[in-house]
Design brief:
The chain is 44% helix and 16% strand. The protein is of the alpha/beta class. The protein folds into 2 domains: 194 residues, Glycogen Phosphorylase B (Rossmann fold), CATH 3.40.50; 173 residues, Glycogen Phosphorylase B (Rossmann fold). The strands form 2 sheets. A 7-stranded parallel sheet has the order 3-2-1-4-5-6-7, with helices on both faces. The chain has a 6-stranded parallel sheet with strand order 10-9-8-11-12-13, with helices on both faces. The longest helix has 18 residues. The radius of gyration is 21 Å and the shape is globular. The two termini are 17 Å apart.
Length: 387
């Protein structure tokens, strides 16, 4: 069944975080499912445009934001675009909860009788709801109305689905992980390490993702300083909160291993693949994390992963032996990282199990097949557009 599917999101800027990365891979899911997909988003050039320029699976409708700053923007131009596009599609997928693209998108879909899925991307998690919590509670009727009208609430992990807050709406939940493509030609590890100037006996610990307060980066710096050998290197790759990045660089400069800690900033997909090929351990010690595309990419690349138990994907990874899971605190994380760095046999086993789990669970064909079944179920209960 070929459908016309409209995705809406506040931004796909390079620094917007996991939501933008998710849209990038969901376009491939739509194509694999046999759907024609359109992406409606707001133009945010200050956030970077590399991701937006690499979405071949979407017809992109780019809207210039209104005058209001932040996420509550779009104004009349957003409303007009939605009224034009929604009735031309069979299904709408709203990404995010607390912004106008989602609120106006849901209201427009209900007006035209077009079914919609709502993908919160962790924004309905208790950890995330603390931010601007009083305002979110006061505006609960808005979120409840949008959630109640959704055919399904899309989650990427089982723990997210179990914890999700719906503000009183009785919305069905569905769990669909994000796919991660395997490299057509894996990067050359020796070449990647040589390009980084790594000594043959150096072990590389890698963080790759958005620089954000919840990512546990101060903890990672301290854990690396306490656990790594004298020739080991830590790379913290990513952008986001620049003030936090400055504090991290200042903190790193105070450590005795300062000359072995690097902050390359945001890296594109080919550079990220090279870093994963060169790395001995991918480390994510987040205080809270839902799916983590970066972790999924590390697993698919065969990079041994160390994740905190606050990464929701850790539930599945721990059961499959596909990652080393530890508490997000200094002693436990030090023991886990030191154990991995000193045990090449365990790293090799994790690499094999992680790659196998990712191939079985996150392969594009697997995810798109599950998505196609979900959409078919939705459409069997909802009328198709007659535009």
């Amino acid at each position: 069944m070929s459908l016309r599917v409209l995705h809406t999101v506040a931004s796909v800027g390079d620094t917007y975080g996991g939501v933008a990365s998710a849209l990038h891979v969901l376009g491939a899911v739509e194509q694999a499912a046999g759907h024609d997909a359109t992406l409606l988003t707001l133009s945010r050039p200050e956030q970077g445009s590399a991701l937006l320029g690499s979405m071949p699976h979407f017809d992109v409708a780019l809207i210039r934001p209104g005058r209001l700053a932040g996420r509550l923007h779009g104004g009349s131009r957003l409303g007009a675009a939605l009224q034009r596009l929604v009735p031309q599609h069979d299904l709408v997928v709203l990404h995010g909860v607390f912004d106008l693209t989602s609120l106006v998108g849901g209201r427009t879909a209900r007006r035209f009788g077009v079914p919609y899925l709502l993908w919160p991307h962790g924004s309905l998690d208790p950890y995330d709801l603390v931010k601007h919590g009083s305002l979110k509670r006061r505006l609960a009727p808005l979120w409840r109305e949008n959630l109640s009208g959704a055919t399904a609430l899309m989650c990427t992990t089982a723990r997210e689905a179990a914890l999700v807050e719906t503000f009183g709406a009785s919305t069905a939940t569905a769990v669909l992980p994000l796919p991660v493509a395997g490299a057509a030609q894996p990067p050359d590890r020796a070449r990647a390490r040589a390009a980084l100037g790594l000594a043959p006996d150096a072990r590389l610990v890698l963080f790759c993702g958005r620089v954000d307060a919840k990512k546990g980066l101060p903890l990672l710096l301290d854990v690396f300083a306490a656990s790594a050998g004298p020739r080991d290197v830590l790379v913290v790759a990513g952008s986001g909160d620049e003030r936090l990045a400055e504090r991290l660089r200042a903190r790193a400069a105070e450590l005795p291993c300062a000359d072995r800690i690097r902050f390359p900033g945001w890296v594109d997909a080919p550079s990220r693949a090279d870093l994963l090929a060169a790395a001995d351990v991918f480390a994510l010690l987040s205080e809270n994390e839902n799916f983590s595309v970066a972790t999924a990419e590390a697993l698919r690349a065969g990079t041994p992963a160390l994740v905190s138990d606050q990464v929701y994907l850790a539930d599945e990874l721990g059961r499959a032996g596909a990652a080393r899971v530890c508490r997000a605190e200094h002693v436990a994380a030090c023991a886990a990282l030191r154990g991995l760095l000193d045990n090449p046999g365990e790293r090799a086993a994790l690499a094999r199990a992680g790659r196998a789990w990712a191939a079985e669970t996150l392969d594009l064909a697997v995810v798109s097949g599950r998505y196609r079944e979900l959409v078919q179920e939705v459409m069997s209960r909802c009328p198709q557009s007659v535009f």
